[in-house]
Design a protein that fits this description.
The protein is α/β, with parallel strands linked by helices and about 650 residues long. It is about 40% helix and about 10% strand. Helix 5 runs antiparallel to helix 14, helix 6 packs parallel to helix 14 and helix 18 crosses helix 19.
């Protein structure tokens, strides 16, 4: 571990390099000291390859003044001290939920999209027909050979070979380092039309609009990273068993209690994988004779879990509450098929935030229907927990609904907490049953100690920590008490929703920003501003987008399959490279290919401006601006960003 003296020496050298490249001597260096001096933070802050001081990625374009104090690495969590670039994610009381209606493009766009697919499919079949006869060795894996059946189906692999392969350079791009505000791409090229990829040995730093990092906790330095490092020293890197067979650590118990407090429920259960949380828990909730009502756009993990359960399933049109009520009346009145007996139970499953559409579940109306028709409600908050609501508690917090009125709250730690795995929160009786009946408790490896520590530290940072009035029992609490970062209150006067200090590991160092909750509030408000700004700005530019203004996931419609590759490549090869995610069939309907922007609290307002300028330029070249309505020039949007965000409704 480097000493403070060596670290300061390295900072001085980096400052000298900055001045050599045009930095102003009157300002502080365009670097930020991490909250603690570790080997990982030194490698990140002072990376020798990141010596471009003008791109705004590794270092701010405008160096901070002496009055600005930042405790994050700019490449991981951007420096932004302007309080105008903050917003609170919350539904306005007394107003009905309203999502942006889906807009269809002009007919010529749909027609040419279908023609594009037809052309690619016809040419693909022609190439297969000729290739199987003149280059049979290249197709041996698709045909019976030497008495063995083909492992891969010719028909099933056609889409992968003839459509996806042509744009495969847009997917599975290898990266290295921390997937924070920026990301380091490992450059590659293909000599054979994407069949194989050859690394060049070089790296490119790019603005990261692709990773799930809503609150910016994907950091290589800071209080959370320090806590994870200490947990590895104490626990190692694995739990060494399943939850029911010796794999339950004290960290599991503490994490589950903290999750329950965070969500406002009686109890919680955590799982080591988000997909498995749904697929192993749903079969423990419903079985044969039960009915699951599912939104048509629910995640694959929900569909898989319902299939395993053996329950009947009916789907309703996405977020259509009238269609849902009609379906409820039908299934309740008709009962089970053939016998018409009453259902054992009816479970409605929706997502809080739909990751491909950017839409929110219409939870206020769903709660009214729940009171009327007496069904159980399961809300998947994988993308909404941490990302929505004034306190980051998800869609219930966003709409101001009591979380205990929802029977099952599911979520993951992947998107907002910089960790992995998932949780189920709800009534204690239900959770106790799921611990035994859910397959993850019996067969799945327990969540590892480093991941558990990241969950605890990041969640405590969002909640804030209430310190006990009595004499602290740990060195961490003693240090905090001596520095007096927050007022001490009696244990009986705990602020609702905060994390009591005794619920955290005693060896975990608590930074002042974690204790008073200022770090978490800052992240929540930065994410809310970024989300609302980009959503509304793209519509003002004339793009067709889906979803809600406050969604951190923003799908921009491309339609043509060929435009996906061009859009992704043009973004990646700009002067300031930008990494985005393009999505097509079968993840979306055939004609609604899209690029999906994933925003983070780590992004600055300048990052969103850079993205908007790139979208404006590429959108003109690819003819993507097909939405009707008033349009603003991109520079006007950038100059009026705060006004645009704070409008009750975008004009």
């Amino acid at each position: 571990m480097p000493t403070a003296a060596s670290y300061l020496s390295a900072v001085s050298e980096a400052d000298a390099r900055a001045r050599k490249h045009g930095g102003t001597p009157a300002s502080t260096p365009a670097l930020s000291m991490s909250s603690s001096v570790t080997s990982s933070s030194e490698d990140t802050v002072l990376e020798e390859n990141a010596d471009d001081f003008t791109d705004g990625l590794s270092y701010p374009r405008v160096p901070p003044t002496s009055s600005d104090v930042f405790t994050t690495v700019h490449a991981e969590f951007g420096h932004c001290a302007n309080e105008d670039y903050r917003y609170t994610s919350q539904h306005r009381k007394g107003t009905p939920y309203k999502s942006i209606p889906e807009r269809d493009p002009p007919y010529y766009v749909l027609l040419t999209t279908y023609i594009s697919y037809i052309l690619v499919i016809c040419l693909g079949h022609l190439r297969d027909f000729v290739g199987k006869r003149f280059r049979a060795m290249n197709y041996r894996h698709l045909l019976p050979w030497n008495g063995y059946a083909a492992l891969n189906s010719d028909f099933d692999s056609f889409y992968t070979r003839r459509l996806k392969l042509r744009i495969d350079d847009c997917f599975s791009h290898p990266v290295t380092g921390v997937p924070g505000r920026t990301i380091l791409l490992l450059d590659r090229y293909s000599p054979d039309y994407n069949k194989t990829m050859v690394p060049t040995g070089t790296r490119t730093r790019a603005l990261n609009i692709s990773s799930y990092n809503y609150l910016g906790f994907a950091q290589g330095s800071g209080p959370c990273a320090d806590a994870v490092e200490r947990s590895i020293e104490r626990y190692g890197v694995a739990a060494g068993g399943t939850r029911l067979e010796g794999g339950t650590l004290d960290l599991h118990v503490q994490a589950e209690a903290l999750v329950a407090r965070f969500m406002g429920t009686e109890d919680a259960l955590i799982s080591s994988m988000g997909f498995a949380t749904n697929s192993t828990v749903i079969p423990a909730l419903v079985s044969k004779g039960c009915l699951v009502i599912s939104d048509e756009l629910n995640h694959a993990s929900i569909r898989f879990g319902v299939r395993l359960s053996g329950a009947n399933v009916r789907m309703f049109k996405h977020n259509d509450m009238k269609a849902l009520e009609r379906l409820l009346r039908e299934v309740i009145s008709q009962g089970q098929p053939k016998t018409h007996r009453p259902w054992k139970k009816i479970l409605l499953i929706v997502e809080g935030l739909y990751s491909m559409e950017g839409t929110l579940a219409n939870l206020p109306i769903i709660m009214e229907l729940k009171k009327k028709y007496k069904f159980y409600l399961f809300v998947d908050e994988a993308h909404s927990v941490g990302a929505l609501g004034p306190r980051g508690r998800g869609v219930t917090d966003y709409f101001g609904i009591n979380p205990r009125s929802v029977d099952i709250l599911m979520g993951t730690f992947t998107k907002s907490f910089g960790a992995a795995g998932g949780y189920i929160a709800g009534n204690k009786d239900i959770i106790d049953r799921l611990r035994i009946q859910g397959h993850s408790g019996t067969y799945a490896e327990s969540m590892t100690p480093p991941v558990l520590t990241q969950v605890i530290a990041s969640m405590a940072s969002i909640m804030g920590v209430t310190l006990p009035a009595e004499k602290p029992s740990s060195p961490s609490l003693a240090l905090l008490r001596s520095s007096e970062p927050a007022a001490l209150v009696a244990e009986s006067e705990l602020i609702p929703g905060t994390a009591p200090a005794h619920a955290l590991p005693p060896w975990m160092t608590l930074a002042p920003a974690m204790v008073d909750g200022s770090d978490g509030r800052n992240r929540l408000r930065r994410l809310a501003f970024n989300s609302r700004y980009l959503n509304r700005a793209l519509r003002k530019l004339g793009f067709i987008t889906y979803g809600h203004d406050d969604s951190p996931v923003i799908p921009l419609l491309l339609f043509h399959p060929g435009k996906m590759a061009v859009f992704s490549r043009m973004m990646r090869t700009r002067a300031t490279p930008i990494v985005v995610v393009v999505v097509a069939y079968p993840a979306t309907p055939l004609v609604t290919s899209r690029v999906r922007f994933c925003l983070s609290a780590a992004h600055t307002k300048e990052d969103i401006d850079t993205l908007l300028r790139a979208c404006d330029e590429i959108g003109d070249l690819l003819d993507l601006k097909q939405a009707p309505g008033e349009r603003w020039p991109v520079e006007e949007i950038i100059s009026r960003a705060v006004e645009l965000v704070r409008m009750p409704e975008a004009p």
